[in-house]
Amino acid sequence: CASMTGPSWLVDQNRIATKIRSASGSLDPGEINWKSNPTKPCPSCQYVIDNSDVIEVWPGLPRGVKFDPSDQEIIWHLLAKVGDDNLKPHPFIDEFIPTVEEEDGICYTHPQNLPGVKQDGSASHFFHRAVKAYATGTRKRRKIQGIEDTGDVRWHKTGRTKPVNLDGLQKGCKKIMVLYLSSAKGGKAEKTNWVMHQYHLGTGEDERDGEYVISKVFYQQQHKPTEKSE
């Protein structure tokens, strides 16, 4: 095999995605649990190149590189997910926007337990299906399941549903929700720092039962007041 000059690394989509997700954080690369170990056969001699014993770790990407799609880009990924407008999903998209297959959708667990979610201000995105709260009616499930012993925890919509346009045409909608906690003993619901931006296709105010949506989940950081210089 021909020798290569300069440092080279053998990576795959999982490692690229993991590096992008951790580029803005303080995660120690040595603590990352890699789910893959890419190999590649040499096109000349068919020898399988394996990086499992490589000491030099791929440095990843510069701090600040992150997956932060705009509202329009999120709607594009949603259109591609369902095959609308003859769009096809990007081959890496499952690494950045995983699909929640649970019957209760995004509400199957507290947001802090969703895969990859951190409380550092960074956002995580998920495909999931809209689920009705009851067998009859159109209200969607907002209550977090499985934690009844700690009280009532549910998402509450705040503000108006906003249209999202692509090329001048409305293709979807965005709504913002905040997680509230009510004590098991009752009383006024307490607002938490958990925020969710939810996107659905079409021009209707609400998503249809069973259709795919994208939820962007993050823990809103408390901004400390800046000290005034004397």
UniProtKB/TrEMBL annotation:
Where does it sit, as one GO cellular component term?
nucleus
Q: Which residues form the NAC domain?
A: 61-220
Q: Which InterPro entries match?
A: NAC-dom, NAC_dom_sf, SOG1-like
What is the name attached to this protein's record?
NAC domain-containing protein
Q: Which Pfam families does this chain map to?
A: NAM
What are the recorded GO MF terms, alphabetically?
DNA-binding transcription factor activity; transcription cis-regulatory region binding
Q: Mind telling me which PROSITE patterns this protein's record contains? A: NAC
Its keywords, alphabetically, are: DNA-binding, Nucleus, Transcription, Transcription regulation
Q: Which domain of life, per UniProt?
A: Eukaryota
